[in-house]
């Protein structure tokens, strides 16, 4: 009786997760469409694993279905574990490792559920379509300007739904639409119902304004009709007319939407003429990620550490002119699933994932050659995979938990329908029972950790609200709670440090920023603060260490150039300072800060001619040039030209009458002349 109850509980929980994957959100966290979905998935998967382990403990044996994918998953996980040797942030590594293990477990649970009853795959189909239909309907409401929820993000009338991002919704719908089309070919479902579902899903995809998803959608439809015409020719011919009519209607909706939406027309035009800014950004991301892969082919950045490692490659495909407006370009993703996997996990691990997709398509087509009552469902799955892979060349749908989890559930169903599995019964001995009990406690503990992370993000949200209303004390209180609840999350320290900084508590902020740096040395804003703190407190060794890291992160940026040059200067390494500034001057000849510092550096080594030259150029470029005037005066004094020094200081005081340094130096010169 208990065993039956646990099986039912496992199945109910599995279907509950499946249904709410694209629907779960929480507007009370800092990042509702990312943090909430991670919490929902991992927390419930932890409970699902606990239920499975308790089932195993109550039985004398349990069954693990052996499939061709188990070895691929296993190889991928082994490289995940080995990747620990290259990671900087071990929490992010462990978090990502467990997420990937959860995907594998979800695949096995989906396979087990599908094998319990030959029609269970239909339940999976229905649950996916109903939940995605709800999500798509909400997305349509959003795009028409009627959103009952107050999201933190302005979607600009793009359909984003409960996933909180138009691109995320588009990826989810790419999985659902081919399944809806497969439902259209079912004899048991009224054509009107399936047509309504198809039109709503397609309309939401169109209104997401995600161009990469449009390409994936076309590829998906092409795949569906090729497979249908080849392996279900009779049904294809019989329903060809109505099928074409439905998709002609969808095409007309797309054309009408493009015609009335000027922003969409501009996006398409810019993409075709290669003037689109997002396309340029993506090209840079892809090129930079390729550099990362080239330098780290075996393990990449290590699981979960892509953002940290990529920070040191964000400049690789850019030039000095790209850093005129920004010192640093931050990204946590390659915006290309293939490059993301290779860059984060390394080439061997990514090979296992590529083999998984290849084997999935190969086995799926092999099944279609046999007699199978679920052919259209299989065609829908294969078409979904093609669509998501194409979309993944321009975005990162397989990093989005609802989309990735849905994919692994579909993979489990596909294996069950193909019969490409072998039941492997494992006897429960004492060691396995002890291990199972241990893992029960581990996953219960992990669920509590996830809850703490989720609560800490709630406090970050409250801190942000308090900061907005300039209530510094309350903001500090909330972000301090976030740190206390989840002290391993670097974002918590960063927000808390910024709150203390806004309140004027620089010493406390400094200690917190150092913690951020320890967890993520690629965090640019933290590097900038620490450099300025060390500089103002004459901590020269620490300042040089941070400046060198800043230069590694962004050697083209003015901030990194001047920081490293200054750090060399105050540490007495004048030749290195000059070399750094000269390189910056060659590429950024009109930047006052470089000219000003070059003048000081040449003055420090006694090259008064160059000190004068660069000081004059600095004065000519900037109106706020008191430092350059002063450097010029000092250079004249060192060269023995006291008269020019006096004239320079007098000219300086005309523009900067309250400058104490100029007054004192002029007074000293006058006294020297009197002597």
Q: How would you describe the overall organization of this protein?
A:
By secondary structure, the chain is mostly helical. The protein folds into two domains: 2-428, no CATH class; 436-522, Tetratricopeptide repeat domain (Serine Threonine Protein Phosphatase 5, Tetratricopeptide repeat, Alpha Horseshoe), CATH 1.25.40.10. Helices cover 74% and strands 2% of the residues. It is built from 30 helices and two strands. The chain has helices at residues 2-20, 35-58, 68-82, 90-116, 120-143, 166-184, 191-207, 211-231, 233-238, 240-260, 262-272, 277-295, 306-310, 337-345, 347-368, 375-391, 401-418, 430-468, 472-485, 490-502, 506-519, 524-536, 540-553, 558-570, 574-587, 592-604, 608-621, 626-639, 642-655, 660-674, and strands at residues 61-66, 422-427. A two-stranded antiparallel sheet has the order 1-2. α5 (120-143) crosses α7, α7 runs parallel beside α10 (240-260) and α27 packs antiparallel against α28 (626-639). It is elongated. The mean pLDDT is 88.
